[in-house]
Amino acid sequence: MNSPAIKRKKFIIALGLLAFAVLAAGVLLHVNNDPGADPHMETMKKIISLSIIVVSAFFFVLKYDKIVTLPVEIWQNRRLILKLAGNDFKRRYAGSYMGVFWAFIQPLVTIALYYFVFGTIMKGARSSGSDVPFVLFLTCGMVPWFFFSEALSSGTGALLEYSYLVKKVVFKISVLPIIKVVAALLTHAFFVVLLMVLAVLCGYYPNLYWIQIIYYTACTFVLALAMCYTTCSLVVFVRDLGQLIAVLLQILVWATPIMWDIGMISNPTMLAILKLNPVIYIVNGYRNSIYGGVWFFENFFSTVYFWVICALLFGIGAVVYKRLKPHFADVL
Predict the structure, then answer these.
(1) Is 73 contained in some domain?
(2) In a domain, 43, yes or no
(3) Which of 31, 218, 258, 303 is the 20 to 30 A CA-CA neighbour of 279?
(4) Percent of the chain scored above 90 by pLDDT?
């Protein structure tokens, strides 16, 4: 390894550690001005947040080479990723009479069905905690969920689907999972527009908070991608993982406050356990953006927790992918 490369590595590690230090300082200095906040719970949040930050920093330094390789490859192949993602989106529905419209019909039917069951038949089984129409409350939760679930499930099978490319030595197979996530983003863009139209029809007009939809879309993108690099690597060797992911997504959709309001949970311990689910941060973020009028940085601990978890998941995914990559072609 030459001297410039060593200097660059030391600089990036130092920059990363500085970022972790600033994050830790922010957690320590943060004060919740809510008079109803439990001091014991606030202390626990700080301890948990600091512990996760320390573990992430240690992992970053220890596995630096394997972690950094993946984002560098993604950046270098960004134009190829966009081109292949568009082709993947069109190829998925090639040959069908309705084409890409199938990408939108199934989610729309799902939203309509959930609205009929929970908004019409079982009105007492949910509470949005405000006068927000349930159809808007539901759609704000379903739109990011569709993106996350489709990106994770399709990204998990990326290496299996494109096995003929995995066997090519010259092709950068690290771009395959992100191709699936970008393809899912194309469908998501349509549903974001639909959500905004629905909000206007319900009497919630565009405002500055709506800009946060871009931020929370990026959150969903990063979370799904971070998980995909681990799952797509493991599923090559354990094919049952694909079915397990589908089952876990079915469980997660009910463990996430999409059809129900998280304000219905009165037990603090149960609430704390549920909030370990990073998808809750995204779902609440969409609602806060469209009609809640809350900035993402106002939920300080939730924001710190989410991004540290994403960084940790991405680091784990990069290490797993790098370690198993030499064996992909042999197994496939």
Answers:
(1) no
(2) no
(3) 31
(4) 20
